């Protein structure tokens, strides 16, 4: 009699596990909703012209792209290959971010201070996915 009471819960567990493994369980329902994305303005840093000059130049990126960095009013302008330039504001002497927060560049990295790390949200990314690409670059020419 006692084994009968134990057999019922064990059978229920085995049936639940089999359904989960076979993929027959329904996924949670997700109702479509409108979303609003709010980004705070990046805090700016009053960059000095000598600090801008330290990051200005040409960079050879790890994916084969070439990037030109030029100083602007309170930041830098980055042009990758022949694409339109990206304006970035300074957050520190070595960190720059685009006004929308989609592009971040960190300079003066590596043993010799001539490496750069760029992270960005790709243009064609699906807004439902969180996707960020990180690329390393090395100073090619000042």
Pick out its properties.
142 residues; alpha+beta; 8-stranded antiparallel barrel; 2 helices; 8 strands; globular
Describe the model.
With 142 residues, the chain is of the alpha+beta class. It contains 2 helices and 8 strands; from the N terminus they run ααββββββββ. It has helices at 2-22, 49-55; strands at 57-61, 66-72, 75-80, 86-90, 95-97, 103-109, 115-120, 133-141. Strands 1-2-3-4-5-6-7-8 form an 8-stranded antiparallel barrel. A hairpin with a 4-residue loop joins β1 (57-61) and β2 (66-72). The radius of gyration is 26 Å and the shape is globular. The chain starts with a helix and ends with a strand.
Strand content: 25-35%
> In oligomeric terms, what are we looking at?
single chain
The number of helical runs is 2
Portion of residues within helices: 10-25%
Sheet with the most strands: spatial strand order: 1-2-3-4-5-6-7-8
Distance between the termini: 86 Å
**H/E order of the elements?**
HHEEEEEEEE
- Rough outline: globular
Question: Average pLDDT across residues?
Answer: 75
Based on secondary structure, the structural category is: alpha+beta
**Spans where pLDDT lies below 50 across 5 or more residues:** 10-34
């Amino acid at each position: 009699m006692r084994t009968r009471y134990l057999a019922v819960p064990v059978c229920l567990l085995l049936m639940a596990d089999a359904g989960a493994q076979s993929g027959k369980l329904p996924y949670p329902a997700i109702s479509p909703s409108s979303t609003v994305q709010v980004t705070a303005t990046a805090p700016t840093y009053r960059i000095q012209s000598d600090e801008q000059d330290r990051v200005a130049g040409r960079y050879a990126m790890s994916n084969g792209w070439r990037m030109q960095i030029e100083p602007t009013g309170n930041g830098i302008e980055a042009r990758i290959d022949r694409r339109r330039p990206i304006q970035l504001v300074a957050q520190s002497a070595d960190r720059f971010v685009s006004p929308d927060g989609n592009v971040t560049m960190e300079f003066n990295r590596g043993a010799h201070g001539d490496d750069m790390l760029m992270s960005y949200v790709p243009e064609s990314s699906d807004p439902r996915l969180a996707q960020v690409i990180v690329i390393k670059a090395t100073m090619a020419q000042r």
